[in-house]
Amino acid sequence: MNFFRDTGLIFWSQLRANLRDPRWVIIGLTQPVLYLVLFGPLVKGIAGSLGAGADPWKILTPALVIQVGLFGAMFAGFGIVMELRSGVIERQRVTPAARGALLMGRVLKDMTVLIVQALVLVGVAMAAFGLRPDPLGLAASVVLIAVMAAGLASASYALGLWARSEDTLASVLNTIAVPLMLLSGILLPMTVGPAWLQNLAKANPFSHTVSAARDLFRGDFTTNEVYLGSALTVIVALALMTLGARSFARENA
Question: pLDDT, tens digit, for every residue of 61-74?
Fold first, then answer.
């Protein structure tokens, strides 16, 4: 029970910090909304080449939600670098709090922020562009993306504990984040690309997360991509969370 209590305490502490200064949450949501407004009409213009009856907003919106999760979670490590510098981590080391709770509380905060951002983004798409996702599929896709974000945030915290510097962390994350985004089919389905690019994208597990989220948005719950994308997302998230937990355990030993 101490683990859950400690996780809750860390979660509320981290969430209150975001509520006191929500600028980064708003900034993180601004770019996907701009993509929705400015890039959406372009996707609409090529909807015919994406398949008969393809809804451009059901293609773009879930991918932009993943973009929010991808960048928001991957750059969560900057917060841990600031906490290291300010002595927050050092003070937490001398408490009896469960070491795993120090990570899980932060990860739950990141998942909560992502879910709120996702619902706002989907709300904008519904109000402004007539998006009508399957309700159950919307819920399932948001959960799937939140699981993805949990793994990425854990890895980012581990990198932050290792780097201990914003400059080093930024270099590493930018090197990783941009190829992940480009090869995930966030802006356009990879099916419109050449065969070599499609094959390269298949090696990126998050491209399957994007495909699964798109299928779920449409209410297609039994496609191969839903099964494959969901399984890969959970496996990768568990692996990254294990990495993050071990990094916290070493830091706070």
Answer: 888 888 888 888 88
d(CA 51, CA 48): 6
Write down the pLDDT at residue 52. 42
Token code pair at residue 77: 């490590």
Q: For residues 86-96, give the mean pLDDT.
A: 75
Query: pLDDT at position 176, please?
Result: 86
Residue type, 231: A
Sequence-distant (6+) residues with CB within 8 A of 124 are 33, 36
Residue that has been written with the tokens 């937990």 in this structure? 245
DSSP code string of 221-235: -SSHHHHHHHHHHHH
The answer to whether residues 60 and 141 touch, using CB atoms and an 8 Å cutoff, is no
Burial class (CB in 10 A: 0-12, 13-18, 19+), 4: exposed
